[in-house]
Amino acid sequence: MTDSIVSALDTLGNSAYVVVALLILMALYTMLTQKNLIKICVSIAILGSSVNMFLVLLGYRDGGEIPIYFLQGENQAMVLPTPQCLTLTAIVIALATTALMLSLIILLHKHYGTLDIDEIRRLRG
Amino acid sequence: MKPLSVVVTSICDIFAWFIVVFGVYVINNGHSTPGGGFQGGAITATFLSFVLVAYGGSHFKQWVREGVYGLLEFVGLVAFFIFGCLGFPNSFFYNSLAIAYGATPLSEWIPYCGTISLMNVAVGFEVVGALSIVVITMYESIHMVSTGEGMGGERGHDRFNR
Amino acid sequence: MKRVIFLGAAIVLAGLLCGMFEAIHPFGVPRNTAMDDYFLVHALSDRSAQNVVTSMVFDWRGFDTLGEAGVLFTALCSIGALFRDGSKKE
Hints:
The complex is a heterotrimer of chains A (125), B (162) and C (90).
Chain A: H1 2-12, H2 17-33, H3 37-58, H4 81-112, H5 117-121
Chain B: H1 6-28, H2 37-63, H3 66-85, H4 115-147
Helix pairs in contact in B: 1-2, 2-4, 3-4
Chain C: H1 2-23, H2 34-45, H3 52-60, H4 62-82
Helix pairs in contact in C: 3-4
């Protein structure tokens, strides 16, 4: 089972990165075309997740195991731990910024009564 | 927020505690399994939003005290800093309690890895406190925003009153 | 009109991304692994940590994690300041 997965990953080549490219394009499309602030917030979260995925993909080694000695299988090689460590940091910071973004959106809705960015841009007074 | 149906509250009675148990398991086994303080804290903080969704706002206000979670956050952050200071003759955050690999441990209940599991518990406290306070504050802001009470103090030139 | 402009930009960006992903190292064969191999070996032998990622987060990069906890605390403080009850006089 695991060997078939590993061999399938070996035959993929660099096309594994295409998933990351698709996610980045989807996030950019949503960010540029949508008018709703909540949808823009979701697209920023998708962009951050795709970058995290790219970091973890960069650290994969052929036939690599999980970098924990308790759970290691027969293979001796392990995947690189540094990108996973950096990704762990990035996920928590993305969580904090998302919470702050949603709070600012709540206050904007209170102030302007709408979530449409075209309405918000208009001057009031 | 109004409480949901009796089905959801019954499921919450039965299964909400297992969220806390699973989160504490992930925190405590962070040195030997995937997971750790941040992930287990995030799982444990899900409990509070589950209770809020299932039981509604009035029960939630009676049951939850914000000061407890602020204390958790404070204790976790200070304990994390102190555990970092433990390795100071060598360097900041040096793992001074670690036992060399192959040596006999003090007890079979104490893991080899020194301050790592202590820091996992401290960071777990901090993340539980922080995310729970975020949930509580955002719930209280619903009432504040919908009624307009307590939002004073801001008088910008483009402020309009409807 | 906007859609046409966006489609052109998206095609250009997709081409750039695909070129970039073809140019970096092949999937599964990272180039310079000396630092990671050092961590993988010495996490078990020096610090006796079974979980290498946790050992890096809390031991070698502990100061970074302290800053991360500080970021979480700062976000919490700013959320509390945004929804502060302004009508209370202290």
